[in-house]
Amino acid sequence: MSRRTLKLPSWLPIDPYILALIGTVVFAALLPASGATAKVAGGASTGAVAFLFFLYGARLSTAEALDGLKHWRLHLTVLICTFVAFPLLGLAGKGLVPHVLTPQLYSGFLFLCLVPSTIQSSIAFTSIARGNVPAAICAGSFSSIAGIFLTPLLAAALLGNSGGGFSADALLKIGVQLLLPFVAGQLLRRWIGGFITRNKKVLGYVDRGSILLVVYTAFSEGMVAGIWHQVTPARLGALLAAEVVLLALMLSLTWYGAKRLGFDRGDRIAIQFAGSKKSLASGLPMASVLFGAHASLAVLPLMLFHQMQLMVCAVIAKRRSRDPEDDGAGGPLSRETAAVA
To answer: Which residue of 5, 164, 318, 327 has the fewest CB atoms within a 10 Å radius of its CB?
Structure first.
């Protein structure tokens, strides 16, 4: 007799990594690191962030990135959506303070708008929707590279002292923990690139484990500082509603705006999925450097937005895949490739 298993609908992805993040937050709430343990966790977190960006640099193929510049109009459109349109909407959200969002939650909401686009899920959803997959790969990669430089600068300019103190010392930490490891990875790529490619799966677990450590450290600091007493269920509901509006606006802007700019269907799909998303993998380490002890509240909006974008974009991608109009841009990928991170 065959066993019947309960399966979730394919259009409703529950990212296992989000469950791991939630579990990490709960663990930090029950057993937060404090005292000497907090110092050890903080040092390990700092090293993990530097290692993450070293891997980002080592994985990036400079030749592929330069080749992708041929489709510069599409990439420029995605960059404008990510680092201009999103931040402008984030600044407009200042009107929600203090009656809807607390200043701390708004700082996290604005930081969410400054984070680069994601790569894996943009590619996966573009493939499902039969869009221009190579363009999605390049657009997501360019956004991630630009975010290493632009996100800290935009945060310093737009968040000011509200994010926990942006100063020359903070910018120096950004350079040491983010930029230098990234450049070192690029310089060493010719010698270690093959090893990283062969061990991509194992290093992927290292990536995710490092981010879980960053989350645990950030939320532990928040628990010890008592900042979670400032967040009520009503405030969280208001934050979620604001993010629903934000995602809806960006999905509409990327789709209809790309149409007005004359892009074909395959390119519009790539622009919509790459230009409306935010990277949890890049945002969490950056927040730990930028916000310090305030990082727990700062990353909460990004964590909520990440899962929301996966669920909504999965529905959109499924519907686009049934669209009879097909210009041949971007071939289908296997079902396994659609696994999102």
So the answer is: 5
CB atoms within 10 A of CB 43: 11
Under 8 Å between Cβ of 250 and 275:
yes
How close are the terminal C-alpha atoms of the chain, in Å? 35
Tell me the C-alpha distance between 49 and 254, whole Å: 31
Distance separating alpha carbons of residues 28 and 88, to the nearest angstrom: 33
What's this model's pTM, rounded to 2 decimal places?
Answer: 0.75
Give the C-alpha separation, 110 to 13, whole Å.
26
Q: Which residues of 249-261 are buried (b: 16+ CB within 10 A; e: fewer)?
A: ebbebbbebbeee
Helix (H, G, I), strand (E, B) or coil at 33: coil
CA distance 211 to 281: 7
Which amino acid makes up residue 127? S
Spatial contact of 108 and 301, defined as CB atoms under 8 Å apart: yes
Mean pLDDT of successive 10-residue stretches along the chain, which has 341 residues: 43 64 83 85 81 78 63 91 96 91 90 89 85 83 84 84 54 72 85 84 78 79 68 88 96 96 93 92 81 75 86 86 58 36 36
Rounded CA separation 246/222 (Å):
26
Cβ atoms of 283 and 44 within 8 Å: the answer is no
Residue 26: its pLDDT value, please? 85
H-type alpha helices, the chain: 16-30, 36-59, 62-68, 72-80, 86-92, 103-114, 120-128, 133-159, 168-174, 180-198, 200-225, 233-260, 265-275, 280-291, 295-321
